[in-house]
Amino acid sequence: MEKAVIDAHNVSKVYEEGPVPVKAVDDIHLHINKGEFVALVGPSGSGKTTLLNMIGGLDEPTTGQVIINGINITGLSANALIDFRMKNIGFVFQSFNLIPVLTAKENIEFIMLLQKIPKDQRQQRVKKLLEEVGMPDKADVRPGELSGGQQQRVAVARALASKPQFVLADEPTANLDSTAASNLLDIMEKLNREENMTFIFSTHDQRVIKRARRVITLVDGRIASDTMQTPLVHHE
Amino acid sequence: MLFIIAWRNIWRNKTRSMVIILSVLIGLWAGIFIIAFFMGMTNEQIDTAISQQYSHMQVHHPKFRELDEPVYTIQNREKVVELVKHEPGVIAASERTVITAMAASAYTSSGITLLGVDPEEEAAVTGLSERTGQGRYLEENGHNQLLIGNKLLRKLKLEPNSKLILTFQDASGDLTSAAFRITGVFTAASSFNEENIVYINRRELDSLAGFRGGIHELAILLQSNDQLENIAASLRQKLPGGTRLETWKQLSPDLRLMIDSFEQYMYIIIGILLIALAFGIVNTMLMSVLERQKELGVLMAVGLNKRKLFSMILLETIGITFLGCLAGLPLAWLTVMITSKTGINLSQFSEGLAMYGYGNIIYPSLESSYYWKVAGMSISAAILAAIYPAYKALQLQPAVAIRKI
Predict the structure, then answer these.
(1) How far is CA A236 from CA A152, A185, A193, B86, B261, in A?
(2) Which one of A48, A52, A58, A105 makes the best mutation probe of the B interface by having the most chain B beta carbons within 10 Å?
């Protein structure tokens, strides 16, 4: 069995901002191995995004621990966590969260700059990533001039730029039409297959769920089911 | 890359950025011009005070200015005069006798300061001959000649060539009166001087008051005010005892105070302008940060740490202010340069200005160091103004910020 890249132990999240505390995630145990293609599914409010945020170090569990590659990220300081995210985790957000003032190329390059990667290496990787997501001709185009699908593909390239341990994608296809969603999933599947990149999605999009090899269903903040499935293989 | 992001962010909302840039531009332009105008007025007052009243420095008997008694004449006069006239940097010196007197016309009378001068020497030091308008200037061997200020002439309801009776205390303490004829009428930038000073020939005053060649005051004109302190120090070492040399700064403490406090006024004026600007900058940057919460959340999520996020907001703020400075400083410099040559005509307010020793035309001027000081203060204000918006950005939780619409 491959070593777990993500270990969540007794993870709970309680929001106490309103008059009544809300338990968004309730005592979850989760192990995700290197190279998995996982979909976190469930109805709205089931805790998918909250769990994803805690795995990604964007949110802190109220109780429990998140261990990534043997490092307990729950106890890290804010700056250490930012540094950890930069080096280990790629993010793809729901609504094409690219930096609007940067071109596609610059958006991808940005994380590598933060990592202080030399210029020639950065440029080579940007070129390779843009080719992998099928957008070598859009390098100098700003996000505002790209379609939603194209923006998400750039977002995937950006997520992979830092050579992360895994990619977290929060509803990546929510704002895409069928063709764009299918293209995006093709790219992510290919990266998973060829580069053994771990992908974890939160989604209730059937198009994504059908492609996933492991589907974890959340209901009321708890894991209701965790099943392996044979994905619907999409032939390019 | 942070520079690129900050720079491009400035131009995302062009209108908003331009409003701030224009505010900085106008603020700096107005601030610098006001300072230059005040400095021009101050310089005018100093120049006038030096050229028409105090000259650069004066020598007196140590007790003369305190007690104002005619008996306190300068000791070793000849030696003092010779030392002063041979001092490098001194271009002219005027020996004066100074007495408080009463000037009476047929209609009224007025207290005055009577200066007995050598016409040629006085003309060289204070340009009195050039300022003598109606009538003519004092003659070296003239008799009963008197120069009166335009304002005093009107006050005493006299005309050139009228007779004026002067009454004063002589060297032995007795009151002496003598009749003089108004030879000429002088003008002065200071209305006080025009109303209070009367010039006669020192030789005549000497014989009337019995000073036996003694003088109360030796007014000294230098080539340049820049040499003031050096020459004063040199002369103080050389002058014999029983004399006191004072520069115009000591002779006119109010002028000195004005100069010394000028820098403080400048900081106050610019400070007020910058505080107003800083609020505008805070408002704009805060709006910019709040509008971009989602984007800032993404940047933090992908690895932009707090220090870099703070720097980015700071760079944006400094960038906007810098652009305002870049436009405002040359504009201010150009305005000051043009008006320093053309002058600003304030003849409408000549009466009021003359009361304080100002001419009708003010020539704004400003040392180049002030431009850099103002630019430095503006950038400092921008940095301070960026702190609150940057702090708000640092407070963002990426998980929450990303979901902001």
Answers:
(1) 19, 11, 13, 104, 81
(2) A58
Helices A78-88/B293-302 angle, 10° precision: 70
Q: Which residue of B has its CA nearest to A159?
A: B302
In angstroms, the CA B125 to CA B139 distance is: 16
- Ranges of residues in chain A with a pLDDT under 50 are 1, 235-236
Distance of CA B158 to the CA centre of its chain: 34
Check pLDDT > 60 for residue B120: yes
CA A69-A70-A71 angle, 5° bins: 95
Share of chain B above pLDDT 70, in %: 99
Which sign, positive or negative, has the C-alpha torsion A78, A79, A84, A87?
A: positive
pTM, two decimals, is 0.71
Could you report the per-residue pLDDT of A170-199, keeping only the tens digit for each?
888 887 788 888 888 888 888 888 888 899
SS3 for A139?
Answer: coil
- Residue A102: which of B295, B400, B36 has the closest Cα? B295
Q: Is B306 on the interface with A (CB under 8 A)?
A: yes
311-330 of B, contacting A, C-beta below 8 A:
none
Q: CB within 8 A of A24, min separation 6: which ones?
A: A13, A14, A15, A45, A47, A50, A221
pLDDT of residue B332: 92
Class of residue B363 by CB neighbours under 10 A (exposed 0-12, middle 13-18, buried 19+) = buried
Residue B397 touches partner A, C-beta closer than 8 Å: yes
Q: Which residues of B touch A110 (CB under 8 A)?
A: 1, 302
Q: What is the mean pLDDT of residues B353-374?
A: 81
With a cut of 60, say whether residue B384 has pLDDT above it. yes
- Across the interface, whether the CB atoms of A115 and B300 are under 8 A apart is answered no
The tens digit of pLDDT for each residue in B149-186 reads 999 999 999 988 999 999 998 888 888 999 999 999 99
Query: B173: phi > 0 → left, psi -120 to 50 → alpha, else beta; which?
Result: left
ipTM comes to: 0.84
pLDDT for position B116: 94
- Long-range pairs of B271-277 with CB within 8 A, sequence gap ≥ 24: B271/B377, B273/B27, B273/B28, B273/B30, B273/B31, B274/B27, B274/B377, B274/B378, B274/B381, B275/B381, B276/B27, B277/B23, B277/B24, B277/B27, B277/B378, B277/B381, B277/B385
Chain A interface residues facing chain B, Cβ-Cβ under 8 Å? 53, 56, 58-59, 78-79, 82-83, 85-87, 91, 93, 97-102, 106, 109-111, 113-115, 158, 162
Q: What is the pLDDT of residue B147?
A: 94
Distance CA A168, CA A226 (A): 18
d(CA B186, CA B197): 10
Percentage of chain B modeled with pLDDT above 90: 35
What is the predicted pLDDT for the residue at A235? 47
Out of A87, A91, A110, closest to residue B1 by CB: A110
What angle do helix axes B293-302 and B253-291 make, rounded to 10 degrees?
Answer: 80
| Per-residue pLDDT tens digits for A68-98 | 988 899 888 888 888 888 888 998 887 768 8
